[in-house]
Design a protein that fits this description.
The protein is of the alpha+beta class. The protein is built from 3 helices and 9 strands. It has helices spanning about 15-25, 70-75, 125-130; strands at about 5-10, 30, 35-40, 45-50, 60-65, 80, 85-90, 90-100, 110-115. Strands 1, 2, 3, 4, 5, 6, 7, 8 and 9 form a 9-stranded mixed beta sheet that branches. A hairpin with a 2-residue loop joins strand 7 (about 85-90) and strand 8. It is elongated and about 45 Å long. The two termini are about 25 Å apart. The model is unreliable at about 115-130 (pLDDT under 50).
Length: about 130
């Protein structure tokens, strides 16, 4: 079943954002370079994008699906817009889309990223799969 497994947030001040989530919720965040940090629970994780050129302007939920190409086709049939073609990232592959009511606001705002094989390296699920 498709489910949200990751939410990415913009973080203009990455250090302050990390400090807030660590202090308030006790979350451990792993850095992936100087501008990105995320939790790695293998459940619903949180990513903080500090590079404003790459950051979504609103929360970006990532939905895991079994068949990325079929999900992309379903999005298009339902009136959604593909923001950019399917691409690889360290956790698998994904395709950012806009919902029909938010067709062209330039980034992922109001959209979703549909992912396949979205298991973060180092997570318990990744270790179990070898």
């Amino acid at each position: 079943m498709a489910r949200i497994n990751f939410v990415e947030l913009p973080a203009r001040d990455l250090a302050a954002a990390k400090s807030l989530y660590q202090s308030v919720f006790g979350w451990a965040l792993t850095d992936f370079g100087p501008t990105y940090s995320c939790t790695m629970t293998a459940d619903v994780d949180l990513g903080l994008q500090g590079d404003m050129a790459e950051a979504p302007s609103a929360p970006l939920p990532v939905v895991v699906v079994d068949d990325l190409e079929a999900a992309q086709a379903a999005v298009e049939r339902a009136g959604g817009t593909i923001v950019k073609p399917i691409f690889a990232f360290p956790g698998g592959r994904r395709v950012p889309v806009h919902r029909p009511e938010r067709p062209g606001d330039g980034d992922h705002a109001g959209g979703l990223a549909w992912a396949r094989s979205c298991v973060l390296r180092g997570s318990p699920a990744a270790r179990a799969s070898g």
